[in-house]
Write a structure and sequence with these properties.
By secondary structure, the protein is of the alpha/beta class. It folds into 2 domains: 84 residues, Winged helix-like DNA-binding domain superfamily/Winged helix DNA-binding domain (Arc Repressor Mutant, subunit A); 216 residues, D-Maltodextrin-Binding Protein, domain 2 (3-Layer(aba) Sandwich). 35% of the residues lie in helices and 27% in strands. It is built from 12 helices and 14 strands. Strands 6, 7, 8, 9, 10, 11, 12, 13 and 14 form a 9-stranded mixed sheet that branches. Strands 2-4-3 form a 3-stranded antiparallel sheet. The longest helix is centred in the N-terminal third of the chain and has 13 residues. It is elongated and about 90 Å long.
Length: 324
């Protein structure tokens, strides 16, 4: 059985946008076939098949595997180079500036950093959560990830980076320490005091997406308190960012959400502090040169002061490399 291979070039994607070539490739993924056999299956002349087959061969999607000669007639058999193909390409802006793709936990400091780098670098943010961010980095779909994952032994991020990248040299850099807690409507009219209050019938909760560091922390705490998610109204519906959750509380569509103090501050919400956490940036060593301008920016007092002004951030260790 042939393995699944990612598609890495736009030439490959462009060819497969034609349903006729895609049909040929899918048939050759199932079993080798000759021009004659493909023509019969598709109801097309072998010369037509050959035209499309040669284009697929030129971009490395199919290969010649066998040649039969019978009664002076040469018949060539082709097959796909993989048992399946994974579409894996990001369309980036075409400009004179380098583009850096970030995938990971949503963070307001990263949004601020993207704005400060904008004149010189396109920092494109995908808030997919800490775990999905590391998986995206593993798949080479981004150059940089951000996470705040606490393992059972009380260590942040490093065990997860080691797990996802046992075979690649990695760097982990601290962005900052953040304060998270329960965001409530201004004045806390529902008198919410802690996680246990989320089970009340008059409280609607805005939950974060599975795989986010915030959601993982919440689920650990609920387990320790023997509180099932089903006991919390709104638990099953999730949102990708702290900002989105804060907006729901501000508009009265939720009574509480777990999120950053900075998000609560921006939306004029009440806030019940629950925990401090370390937020790190992770990237493969081979991306260090591309990321140098971004990493240099972390070291500036201007950046640190602007993040601290968001409230809820401690930047004393910003830019420090943590040994793996």
């Amino acid at each position: 059985m042939l393995p699944i291979q990612p598609l890495h070039s736009f030439e490959q994607l462009k060819l497969l946008a034609d349903p006729r070539r895609l049909d040929i490739l899918r048939r050759l993924m199932a079993a080798p076939a000759s021009l004659t056999q493909l023509g019969q299956a598709l109801g097309e002349h072998p010369a037509w098949v050959r035209h499309h087959l040669k284009q697929l061969e030129a971009v490395g999607l199919v290969e010649l595997v066998e040649t039969h000669i019978e009664s002076g007639v040469v018949e060539k058999f082709y097959r796909a180079k993989a048992g399946g193909f994974l579409l894996q390409e990001i369309i980036l802006p075409r400009s004179g500036r380098p583009a850096i793709v970030f995938a990971g936990s949503h963070d307001l400091a990263m949004e601020l950093l993207a704005g400060q780098l904008a004149p010189h670098i396109d920092l494109l943010l995908m808030p997919v959560g800490s775990l999905d961010g590391l998986m995206t980095l593993r798949q080479n779909l981004c150059q940089l990830s951000g996470c705040h994952l606490l393992d059972a032994g009380g260590e942040y991020n490093l065990p997860f980076v080691r797990h996802f990248f046992p075979d690649r040299p990695m760097q982990v850099i601290t962005l900052g320490h953040r304060l998270q807690g329960l965001m409530t409507a201004s004045g806390n009219p529902k008198d919410i005091r802690g996680l246990a209050d989320l089970t009340r019938s008059d409280v609607t909760f805005a939950n974060r997406n599975p795989g986010s560091g915030t959601r993982l922390w919440l689920d650990q705490q609920l387990h320790a308190l023997s509180i099932p998610g089903a006991a919390i109204r709104g638990y099953a519906t999730s949102y990708r960012t702290h900002t989105e959750c804060a907006s729901l509380v501000e508009r009265g569509q939720a009574d509480a959400a777990l999120g950053l103090l900075s998000a609560a501050h921006q939306h004029g919400l009440g806030f019940i502090p629950l925990f401090h956490e370390r937020y790190d940036l992770a990237f493969p060593q081979e991306q260090a040169e591309l990321l140098t301008p971004l990493l240099d920016r972390l070291q500036t007092s201007a950046f640190r002061q602007s993040v601290e002004a968001l409230t809820g951030y401690e930047m004393a260790h910003t830019g420090e490399q943590i040994p793996l």
